[in-house]
User: Which sequence fits this backbone?
């Protein structure tokens, strides 16, 4: 049975791949990856290929050995700082880095996983911020639902003259104005607030 590589389009028989010890080891490593990461791996690994030459199975195995522990532990270190990087961030980073092929300034072949790690950490921070915003929105929705259940209106329309009415009422209560002055000021306020 022959199958093509989705990244480089070279063909190989499954029997030949299984017979090659390096290829078999690389397949075993790749099978340990979560599906959402594994499905994007071939496009990423192709970035390590020099020109039109293929990439050796031994090299694929070494690359997987370098990246697999970080993906499995959902973490990465960069510049001496340890970061939590969920599988979703690794998957997004693999897609983003592989999509850069052919872009100006994106030099191939890659020599290390440094750029992937940088992108994955950035994506992890974006996902964490998104998760935090979602959590805050959920808390607000729950509080609003509680207030609604308790009979408290979540929002009440503000009357721009409410403070002025309270001030006039307070002046009457404290004896600074008479009942007639109070009535006169309230009526004037109501007339001025009509459109």
Assistant:
């Amino acid at each position: 049975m022959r199958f093509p590589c989705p990244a480089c389009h070279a063909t190989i028989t499954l029997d030949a791949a299984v017979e090659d010890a390096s290829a078999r080891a690389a397949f075993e490593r790749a099978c340990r990856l979560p599906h959402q990461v594994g499905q994007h791996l071939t496009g990423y690994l192709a970035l390590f290929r020099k020109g039109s030459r293929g990439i050796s199975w031994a090299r694929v195995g070494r690359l997987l050995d370098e990246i697999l522990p970080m993906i499995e532990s959902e973490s990465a270190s960069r510049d001496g700082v340890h970061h939590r990087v969920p599988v979703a961030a690794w998957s997004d980073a693999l897609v983003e880095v592989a999509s850069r092929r052919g872009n100006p300034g994106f030099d191939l072949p890659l020599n290390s996983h440094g750029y992937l790690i940088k992108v994955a950490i950035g994506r992890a921070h974006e996902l964490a911020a998104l998760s935090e915003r979602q959590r805050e929105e959920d808390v607000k929705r729950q509080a609003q639902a509680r207030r609604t259940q308790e009979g408290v209106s979540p929002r009440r329309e503000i009357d721009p003259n409410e403070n002025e009415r309270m001030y006039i009422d307070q002046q009457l209560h404290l004896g600074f104005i008479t009942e007639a002055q109070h009535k006169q000021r309230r009526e004037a306020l109501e007339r001025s607030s009509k459109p």
Remarks:
- Residues 114-149 form the longest helix (36 residues).
- The chain has a mean pLDDT of 84.
- The first strand starts at residue 2 and ends at 4.
